[in-house]
Design goal:
Layout: H1 4-30, E1 61-63, E2 73-78, E3 84-89, E4 108-112, H2 123-130, E5 139-144, E6 152-160, E7 164-174, E8 180-183, E9 186-188, H3 191-200, E10 211-212, E11 238-246, E12 250-257, E13 261-268, H4 275-287, E14 296-300, E15 306-309, E16 315-316, H5 317-322, H6 324-327, H7 331-350, E17 363-366, E18 370-373, H8 385-388, H9 402-407, H10 412-427, H11 442-450
Parallel strand pairs: 5-10
Antiparallel strand pairs: 1-2, 2-3, 3-4, 5-6, 6-7, 7-8, 8-9, 11-12, 12-13, 13-15, 14-15, 16-17, 17-18
Length: 462
C-alpha cells in the first residue's frame, strides 16, 4: 500500500534513474559533444552538435520525448521559455521533394518559435506588416530569405527626414559550422544570440532592435472542420449585424456565424441567380485558396441566397480610396496594392479560372493595406436582362474588354484589360473611368473601343 508521499519519492527516484540511464546510453551511442559548452547549466552534453546549435543563456536542455520508432527525430527543449526547440535526428533521411530537408543521424535542428520569427514571409508582406499603424521605429522581424536558400533576412522599421517611415532589410548569412552573421565582425551561434546582440546596440544597423513585429490573427480558411467539406449551413446560424453596402443585386452585411465568428454575408435578391447554378459554381470557388483572394466559407443556397466570406475591415477598395486613409496614400502604397491584386489574379489564371468582373468595387481592403479579390466568377451566373445584354445600365462596360462586351468572349485576357482599368482607379483615387461618357453613351464607348480608341491618361497619373 504505502503512503502518497512514499509513492511520490519512489516515482521521483525512478524518473531520475531513467534520465541518468538515458544520458549514459546517449553518450555511449554518440560520443562526446565536440562543441565547447558556454552555458554550464546544460545537462545533455553527449549528442554530437554537428550544426553547432545552442539554446540561449542560462537554461538547460532536457530530453522529454524519448525515442519513437515511427519518428525520424527525438526531441530536446529549453526550459526557460527561450522560444527554441531542438530536435535530434535518430535516422538518416534523404529529401524526397524540393521542400524536404536531408539530414543524417545525430544532427541537431533548431526549431524557431520566437515571436520575431515569421518564416516564409515575402519582402513586401514584411514591409506591409512593419509599416502598420502603431509600430515604432526599431520594430523588427526575421524571415526566410527569398533569394538565398538557408539564409534569413532581418527587416527593421526605420525613420529619417528624407524617407519618413520605411523598412531596411539585412541578409543574415549562415556559417559552414552552423552559426549566423550579418557582418563577419560579429558572428553568433544562434539567431537568438544575434537578436540579443542587436537589441542592445545598433552596431552598424539602421537602429537598435526594439520590439518584435506584432503577428496578426492567422487566416481562417474554414469556419470549422464540419464546414470544410459540407459547407451548406442553416440560415439560423448567421446573425446580420451591420449593413456595409447595398448593390444592384443585393446587400453586404457584417455578421457572425454561431454568434462568435465575424464574417461578411452577401445577401442576393431573389431571382438574381439560379440556386442550382450558384451551388455548382460555389463548389469551384470554395477550392480557390490564396492569401489575396477573399475566402469563401459557406453558403445558404435557398433563396434569398447568402454567401458567407471572410470579413475585411476597410471595405471595398473603391470606397477606401475616396476618403480618409485611402485618399492620403502615396504612389508606393498604390503600387503595392496593385501588386497584391496582380498576385491574386495570377493565381486565378493558374487555376484556369476567370473573374469576369474585376474592378475596385470588387477588391476588399483589410488592416495593413492588405487587398483581396472578391466576387470572382459570380458575374457569369447573374440572370438579369439589364446585365446579360452587356449594354444595359447594370453591366460594368467601362471595365470590360471589347471582345467580352461585344461578343461575350471572357478569357483571362479580358481580365487583364479590366486590371488595366483598375490601375486608373487606383491613381485617380476611385474616379470612374471614361468620366466624360454617361451611361446612355455605352454604345458610343463600344464603337470607340472597336475603333481602337484608348482611355485618356488622367492628370493624376505618375
Amino acid at each position: 500500500m504505502g503512503c502518497v508521499q512514499c509513492k511520490d519519492k519512489e516515482a521521483t527516484k525512478l524518473t531520475d534513474e531513467r534520465d541518468n540511464s538515458l544520458t549514459q546510453s546517449l553518450g555511449y551511442r554518440y560520443g562526446t559533444d565536440p562543441t565547447p559548452q558556454h552555458y554550464p547549466s546544460f545537462t545533455v552534453t553527449t549528442i554530437p552538435n554537428y550544426n553547432n546549435f545552442h539554446g540561449t543563456a542560462g537554461q538547460g536542455l532536457t530530453v522529454f520525448g524519448g525515442v519513437n520508432s515511427s519518428s525520424h527525430t527525438g526531441t530536446l527543449r529549453t526550459r526557460g521559455g527561450t522560444g527554441v526547440t531542438l530536435f535530434v535526428a535518430l535516422y538518416d533521411y534523404e529529401a524526397r521533394t524540393e521542400d524536404d530537408l536531408s539530414f543524417q543521424k545525430g544532427e541537431k535542428f533548431q526549431i524557431l518559435n520566437s515571436s520575431w520569427y515569421f518564416g516564409k514571409l515575402g519582402r513586401k508582406d514584411a514591409e506591409r506588416q512593419l509599416l502598420s499603424f502603431g509600430n515604432p521605429r526599431g520594430t523588427y522581424l526575421i524571415r526566410e530569405s527569398e533569394t538565398t536558400k538557408g539564409a534569413y533576412s532581418l527587416s527593421i522599421r526605420d525613420w529619417d527626414d528624407m524617407k519618413g517611415d520605411h523598412v531596411k532589410h539585412y541578409k543574415i548569412r549562415k556559417l559552414d559550422n552552423g552559426g549566423y552573421y550579418i557582418t563577419t565582425r560579429a558572428q553568433f551561434e544562434t539567431l537568438q544570440q544575434l537578436v540579443h546582440h542587436y537589441s542592445e546596440r545598433a552596431a552598424g544597423l539602421c537602429c537598435r532592435l526594439v520590439v518584435p513585429c506584432h503577428k496578426g490573427m492567422p487566416r481562417l480558411t474554414d469556419l470549422s472542420v464540419k464546414t470544410k467539406d459540407v459547407w451548406e449551413i442553416p440560415r439560423e446560424s448567421l446573425q446580420l449585424i451591420k449593413r456595409l453596402g447595398n448593390g444592384q443585386f443585393g446587400e453586404v452585411w457584417m455578421g457572425t456565424w454561431n454568434g462568435n465568428t465575424k464574417v461578411a454575408i452577401k445577401t442576393l435578391k431573389p431571382g438574381t441567380m439560379s440556386p442550382e447554378s450558384f451551388l455548382e459554381e460555389a463548389q469551384i470557388m470554395k477550392k480557390l485558396k490564396h492569401d489575396k483572394l477573399v475566402q469563401l466559407y459557406a453558403v445558404v443556397s435557398e433563396e434569398p441566397i447568402y454567401i458567407v466570406t471572410e470579413y475585411m475591415s476597410k471595405g471595398s477598395l473603391l470606397e477606401f480610396l475616396k476618403d480618409g486613409e485611402g485618399r492620403a496614400l502615396k504612389l508606393p502604397n498604390l503600387v503595392d496594392m496593385a501588386a497584391q491584386v496582380a498576385a491574386g489574379m495570377a493565381y486565378i489564371e493558374r487555376m484556369n479560372y476567370i473573374h469576369r468582373d474585376l474592378r475596385s468595387a470588387n477588391i476588399l481592403v483589410g488592416n495593413g493595406l492588405i487587398c483581396k479579390i472578391a466576387d470572382f466568377g459570380l458575374a457569369r451566373l447573374i440572370e438579369d436582362n439589364e446585365y446579360t445584354a452587356r449594354q444595359g445600365a447594370k453591366f460594368p462596360i467601362k471595365w470590360t474588354a471589347p471582345e467580352a462586351a461585344l461578343y461575350g468572349r471572357f478569357t483571362i485576357k479580358s481580365d487583364v484589360w479590366s486590371f488595366g482599368i483598375l490601375l486608373t482607379e487606383l491613381v485617380t483615387k476611385g474616379r470612374v473611368p471614361y468620366p466624360a461618357l454617361k451611361i446612355a453613351w455605352h454604345k458610343l464607348l463600344l464603337e470607340s473601343l472597336r475603333a481602337q480608341s484608348r482611355l485618356l491618361a488622367a492628370w493624376e497619373n505618375p
